[in-house]
Amino acid sequence: MLSQCLPYPPHSGVANRTFNILKQLQVEYDVDLVAFFRVRHQPDCAARQAAQDALRSVATFVAEPTPIPGEHSWPRKVWDHVRSLLGGQSYTYYLYSSRAFATRLGEALRTRTPDLVHLDSLDFHRWCRLLAHTTTSSRSCSGGGHGTSTMWYCGAI
Question: 68 with 93: CB under 8 angstroms?
């Protein structure tokens, strides 16, 4: 599962939805979680560690959470907006662009072959090319958000 936030504690809409999907998926799958973290959800290392520890009760593997670059660097946030305007991509395409996240995802994929990949947001479409070649099933990516239930295939992107 790729997540735009570390979904614990499940006290906001996105964290609550993602946490509950994680609990549902773990009934049938060994779930690996590769997630970003948001400063307003886990403001310090202790909060992130507590969230990781709690999530290990419902996930087989929890990667070290990755900071969202634009939340930690004002110039990066401006640069993401400029690239969006000039490049014709959505802002969120650049928001979730992170070498650290790519490294953590790559490490997880080197040690595990997923049957299904759930994206908690369609904003993660940038990672589909990498994921499309790693799943053992034709159901390579699922995504949903904002109260919707959506299934789509990475090969279509």
Answer: no
